Structures are given as structure tokens and as C-alpha cells.
Amino acid sequence: MPKDNQLPFRNIISASVKDMRNSLGQVLYKLDTLMAHHLKDEDKYDLVDAQYEMVRMQNVINQLHGLYLIETDSLTVQPQDSYVMELIEDILASFEALLENKQIDVTVRGDDLSWYLDPQLISSVLQIILLNAIRYTNDEINIELASVEQGLMISVVDNGQGYPDAVLDSFANLVSGQTLANVSSQNSGWLYCEKVANQHKNQGHVGFTKLRNDAATGGGRIDLFIP
Amino acid sequence: MDKALFQNKAAQNSSVYAGLQALVADEFENSRVSIRQMLQGLGIQQVDQTSSGKGVLESCRARRYDIILCDFRLTGGKNGQQVLEELRELKLLKPTNIFIIVSAETSRDVVMGIMESQPDEYLSKPFTQAVLARRLERQFQQSQALAKMKECLAKGKYTELIASCLQHIQEEGRYTPWCKRTLVDAFLATQQFDKLEQLCQAELSVRDLDWALLGLAKKEHHQGQTDNAITILEKLLRLFPQTISAYDLLAQCLEEMGRSDEAQSVLDDAIKISPRIHKRQKHMATVSMANGDTQSALKASQQTVRLGINSIHENPDDYIQLVDIVAESADSVESSADRKRLLNEASQALTVVGKRFADDDSVKLRKTLAESRFHAAQGQAKEAQQALKNAQQIASELEGGMPSDLVVEYGKTLYNAGEHEQAETILASLVNDQSSSSHLKQQAADFLDEPVSSSAKAQAKGLNKDGLASYSQKDYSAAIEQFKTALQYSPRHPGLNLNLVQTSLKLMEANGEQAHLVTECVEALKRLRHVSPAHKQHKRLVALKEYLMKHYKVTF
């Protein structure tokens, strides 16, 4: 790639992402307003679909930009004491119409724990994880919060078909540090989640993510560990 | 605040919110309108809006808002961070008011700047009404629960604050983490160092925490254990490389220990993470200037001025510093176009400072003194003299004459304009005056030691280091040459001159008396007439002088 000093790419990306976020905010707001007006109409379902796609787009922008910041070592990481349940409930609140429309039942279990983490980053990770679960579940999602040895485990379990072996293998390769083969929005999203988890460290322990199929439901299960 | 209110979705019937007043500030009308509608949807009837920082300040003067949602980007000069700082400075925000910075920004320098200004909440765009409702609810709950403590904190009532925090912690209240962090500050302010240590160590035994390590470092620093503070801060930054305030404190500690090169490099790291902080850039400009790194000083000084504009941090000192740094660094700029641009920038800074602080005579005086130094640095002797005369005229019209805190600046200006004797007299009398502040004395003494440009200082410093290396390898002849070259850059430097004397004596001890070396020693000591008994090199000077008189029959 030719070097061109006229192209401060870092700034262009940051300005563009800012613009996209502003626009997304407007679109999401308009959709919300329209939905409130069409509460009983069949149109509402189209709007919910549109909203779902917008939220997906928002996630892709987050993970794309996040990966870029990680790659250039300029990701902001500011841990603070945060109530994890609040983070989860915030995301569920923003997905409310979507979950209702898709008739997905979400259960959250666990204690209202305060944990030392970066709330913005962990929220973006949880959003990616939940959106994945929404996409693949049959009709249930279970979120579990547990204080385990040396850390906090957040597990998101769906009751869908579960992931095929190829996807699970690809995930295992990705968290073991191999270069992404067959880059997709899905695996780059997981890579982002893993990298953000890795940013969280405590007394020699490092955060991580783990994808597998749940023994009980047969659906997908992702664990996010924060030390 | 009633929690059920929000679980009940947007809660249009909210009577709790009905009486509240909110302000929305955003550069884009679309955003303003949508956020305003969201707030109205929550039941807040009074929602004002504005697009500029000035608008926020004016609105807040006219009425007290319970909630302010302010985007980082605003029209006009001020951004959201600057507005928040100014509202606090003007005491237009009560501890119970909620100030939320809203932003679609993603670049670290902006995000870090926002975080460092500590708004009650940082809400990143896009967000939905449901999320806004939840965040507001939490903010209200928190502000109610902490109202008393925040008030104590603002008024410095630490005894009460500590009692309330301890009680909240004992009751396992929701804001226990906040209370613990606040206790650290309260213990520090009341010098209860043992309690601070106990609290932080107890937390650290459970997990790594940046604020607990920072608390311990602050304690060590307060108690004068700067080395310990440095060790703790270095550990903290290994664990939490983005704890920005730890960099600032570490740089300060290193500077206090005379390790100013390291201090500069620490500030450099801090600026890579969070450059948009006035205080940090200012610190960088001062430290790098002291290190003779005029290029870094110039960059930091330009940023300092830029960040000051439209903010409460704007200060005549920033402009004067920029002018002085330009005066010293313009020589080293290679391209003549760049040099010209730089000199223009300095002239402009002089104009701006004159206009901005037009009512302040002491600023006018400082400006005119800086003008003189600026001309002198460019070899414009006539203009330098003229500006100096103007300054003296201004000073004579001031009540009480030349203000005492400007004596050092005045002395430097005199010296640079060629009035060496007068400069020395003034500065020496300041150094020997019991009543003047130790800070000013130090500045005056430093200038008397090295009244040369920063680049000359840096040259001399480097050569002195080489000379010391040669000395420790017992290569005295090489050391003497290196010290002599260094003295061409900084002839009055006490350490350098004494190094030359000491090395010459060492060489003569081995090879016998040599007339030209004795002469070197005498000349070196003559250059140190400005060293007063209070100077840290004075003892060494006397010892070497006596040795010379005794063994080489020299008289002074």
C-alpha cells in the first residue's frame, strides 16, 4: 500500500465511525417511534426486523472498530467497579422489542455482583454474545452469572441446534491465537470478544471466552470469564 | 426514585419526573430533538435545548437543571468536556445535579479526555430510550444515596464523610466501591496514613486494583517516601497501563528526585494515551524545556495554548511560555519557511495575550518583557532594548513597582538584552533575600548558573556526562577537554567548572604542577563568583579553592 501522508487513516476511521453511530442513533430512534405508533399493526414486525438488522450493523461497527483499536494498541480500557446485572439488563432493555417479536424467553440467574471491569467494553461483548444467541436459539436464552474460583463467569446458553463441529473448531483455533481462516463477521466478532476478555487481568489470571454446545439444552453456550 | 416506574416501560405517567428540568446540548438538531423527545417520553416536561457550549453555560446561569445531557461535540469553540469543567468552576452544578456526556466518539484521546473530566455518566451513542431511562434511574438512586457524602466531600467535611462512608460499607450498601475510593482521598486529606494503608492493603489482598495502589503511592509521596511511591507507581502501571493519573504522579515524583529525563518519558507515555489535558501538556512543556528538548517543549506548549482556549485553563503564562520556547527553539528549525511560521505564531501569541488580558497590567508587563526576550533571541538588540524600556515604564506605573513574582522574568530579560550587571545584581539580591519564596530563589539561582539557551544547556549537559565518564576511567586529559568544551556552551555552570578544577587537580597530582592547568583552575573559580553560600555546590567550591591555595600558592 503506498504511503500517503494525506491519509491519516486512524482519524478517518474514527470520524467515520462517529458519523455512523450518530446516524444509527437516529435510525434506531425513528424505528422506536414508529413502533410505538404501530403497536398493533402487522407493520410492526417489519419494523422489528429492520431494528434487528440495525442492531446487527451497530455490533459489526463496534467489533470492526474495536479490533482496529486493539490492533493499533489504542483501545481504551478503564476498569471500574460495575454491577454486571445492570450491564446485562441494559442490553436486554435495548433488545426488548426484538425478543418479544421473536418470542424468545430470556432468563437471568445469579447474584447482583459488582465486578472490576471496563463496563463499555464488556457491554459491547455481551451485546455480540446475546445477538448470536438470539440468532441461533429456538425460543429460550439463559444467562447465568456466577462467582467462580478466581473470577466471574457469565454464561449465555440457547436452546437451538447447537454449533456444528466446524464452527467449534474454528472458534478453538481462534482463541488459541491462530490467524483467522475464512474470516466472517461471526468469527471476527468472537475474536473481538476474546481480545476484550484478554484485556481483563487479575493476580496473574487472564480473561477468556469459550464456545461449546450445552449438554442440557443441546444449543450453543458461550462462557465469558473475567478474573 | 421508584424502580417500578421504569420496569413499567417508558412510564409516561411519571409524576416523579414531571417536575424535573432537563437540558439537552448537541451540535445536530436531529440528535437534540430525539433526545429531547426521549426525555419527554419519560415524563419530563421541561426540556430545554441548545447547540453550543456557551448556550449550556447561559442556560445554567438562568436556571438549575436536574439533568444535563451534553454531547462532546458542540457548536462554537467549547466542547462538552470544557463545558463541564467550567460549570464546576463557576459552581453552577450542585452535587445532586446529573451531568451526562453523550458521545459517538471512539478515538481514545477524546474518550480519555471525557473520562478524566469525570461526568456523572458517559453514554455512548447510539442508545435507546429504554437504556436512557435505566441510566437516569440509576443516577438518581446513586445521587440520592450519596447526596450527604458528596456534600461533605465538596465542603471538605472529612470527619463526617469518613463516618458516612464507613457506615455505608458496614451496611454493605450498593455504593461500597465508591465509598472505599472516597475514603482513600479522605484519609489522605486528614493524614490518617495508617488507616489508608490498612484499607488499600485489605483490598489488594483480594484483587489487583489501580485505585488502591494509587492510594498507597499517594500516601508514600505525602510522607516524603518518594522512592517508595515510584516503586508502587511502576508496579501499578505494569498492571494497569491506562491509569492515567498514575503517570502524572510518577512524573512528578521522578522530577522531585532529579530524574527529569525519565519524568519526560513518563509524560510522553501519558500523552500518547490522553493528550487533551491542559495540565499534562503544560507539565510536559516545562519538563522537556528543563531537559533542553526544545522540540518536545514546543509541541507541548502549542498544545497547552490550544487546549486553554475556550476553557477555564486559559492562562497568560501559557502564551508567555510559548513565546519563550519559540525564542529558544527557532534557531534549530531547519527550513526557513517553518521558522518563519513559528516566529509568526509567537508574535501572534503576544498579540493574543495582550488582547485577552487587556485589563491586567501585570500581564501587560509580562507580555512586554517576553517581547524583549523574543527580540533578543533573534539578535534584534534595538527592539529588545525598546521593549525593555516599555516594560520598565509599565512597571514604574504599577502600584508597588515591579511585582516580586516577576523579578526573575525581569532579571532574565535584562540579561538577554545585554544588561548583565544589572541582571546579576537583581537576581543575586533575590537569592540572598530571606523573604523571597524558595521557588523564586531556585529559579533565580538556576538562571545565574546557566544564563544560556536550552539547547546550549543540553549540549553542556551531554558533554559533562562524557567528561564524568572519562574521569571515572581515569582519562583525565580527555575529561578536561570535554569539560572545557561544555563550558563554551555554559560558562557559569558551577558543577561543570568544579568538575574541571577537580580533574585538573587529579591530573597534576599524577603528573606534577602544570602552569596552564593552574590557570584553568583559577579562571574556572573566577567564573563562579555568583555562587552564594546557600548554593548546593558552595561547600565543594570552598574545599577546592582552599586546596588550590594551599598546594599551588594561588591567591584570589
Can you tell me about this structure?
- The complex is a heterodimer of chains A (227) and B (556).
- Chain A has 227 residues and is of the alpha+beta class.
- Chain A has 2 domains: 9-71; 80-226, Heat Shock Protein 90 (2-Layer Sandwich), CATH 3.30.565.10.
- Chain A is built from 7 helices and 9 strands.
- In chain A, strand 4 and strand 5 (151-158) form a beta hairpin.
- Chain B has helices spanning 4-7, 15-18, 29-41, 53-62, 80-89, 108-116, 129-155, 158-170, 176-189, 193-206, 210-222, 226-239, 244-256, 260-273, 278-290, 294-308, 316-329, 336-356, 361-377, 381-397, 407-416, 420-432, 438-449, 454-472, 476-489, 494-511, 515-526, 538-552; strands at 21-25, 46-50, 67-71, 98-103, 121-124.
- By secondary structure, chain B is mainly α.
- Residues 1-13 of chain B have low confidence and may be disordered.
- The termini of chain B are far apart.
- Chain A binds chain B through residues 10-11, 14, 17-19, 21-22, 24-26, 28-29, 32-33, 58, 65, 69, 74-81, 83, 86, 89-90, 93-94, 96, 114, 116, 120, 201-203, and chain B through 28, 30-31, 34, 37-38, 104-108, 111-112, 115, 122, 124-131, 133-135, 138, 174, 176-178, 207-210, 239-240, 242.
- Oligomeric state as shown: heterodimer
Which chain pair shows the most residues in contact? Answer: A-B, 39 and 38 residues
Radius of gyration of chain A: 18 Å
Structure class of chain A: alpha+beta
Characterize the largest beta sheet of chain B: strand count, sense, and whether it forms a barrel: 5 strands, parallel
What's the CATH topology name of the largest domain in chain A?
Heat Shock Protein 90
Spatial separation of the terminal alpha carbons of chain A: 40 Å
Mean pLDDT of chain A: 90
Q: What helical percentage do the residues of chain A reach? A: 40-55%
CATH architecture of the largest domain in chain A: 2-Layer Sandwich
The CATH topology of the domain at 4-154 in chain B is what?
Answer: Rossmann fold
pLDDT < 50 stretches of chain B? 1-13
Strand order of the largest sheet of chain A: 2-4-5-9-8
Task: Give a short account of the largest sheet of chain A.
Answer: 5 strands, mixed
Tell me, rounded to a whole number, the average pLDDT of chain B: 91
How big a fraction of the residues of chain B is strand? under 5%
Number of domain units of chain A = 2
CATH class of the domain at 4-154 in chain B: Alpha Beta
Query: How many β-strand stretches of chain A?
Result: 9
